[in-house]
Amino acid sequence: MIPVFPTTYFGSIIYYQNLVKHSNVLIETKEHFPKQSYRNRCDILSADGILSLSIPVKKPNGSKTPTDEIQLANYENWRARHWRAIKTAYQSAPYFDYYGVEVHDLIFREDELLINYNDAITYSIFNWLDLPVKLDHTSAFHSVQTDDPREILVDKNKNNQFEQSPYIQVFPSEQSFTPNISILDAIMCSGPLARNLLLPTK
Questions:
Q1: Would you list the DSSP string of the chain?
Q2: Is the pLDDT of residue 57 over 50?
């Protein structure tokens, strides 16, 4: 059975750790779009600590709107705000000059739907890190199972544990490492070697 994952906006490292365990994955598109999750937000590490970046969205059918009909809202200049925050946080990171232009172009895509926007970001991450995962979309809602990725990997209130060795971050915390943030942090700090954070150790 092909596993079902939620869509994400620059998903977390643990999200990608779980994603790459499979060669084929279905992205849930028919669920009623929930509030307060990482489907349309991500956490990056700034000089002041964790900074949450949220995409404003429109729900044509209110709370019953399925994920594949969720639209990007353009009534505020959130793309410029997100890019400014990412640039400020990572412009001194070792791989910012390498990936920064592509991240900028992804953020400023003019997709109408969130699902297409997130897919483009996810496929870019697959390409950057040479991850052999194939994505398809669900055609009907799949009932939620125990330990379902659609809940445990994108619920911002759940405390997922980082499963691999930490890497050197731009802004180390008092504990020297901040876990469970966007894959963007690892890519900017470790470049292609971020792939090693995702794959199981032999």
A1: ---EE---SS-BHHHHHHHTT-SEEEEP-SSBPPSSBTTSEEEEEETTEEEEEE--EE-TTGGG-BGGG-EE--SS-HHHHHHHHHHHHHTTSTTHHHHHHHHHHHHT---SBHHHHHHHHHHHHHHHHT---EEEE-SSPPPP-TT-HHHHTTBTTS-PPP-S-----SS--TTS---S-BHHHHHHHHGGGGHHHHSPP-
A2: yes
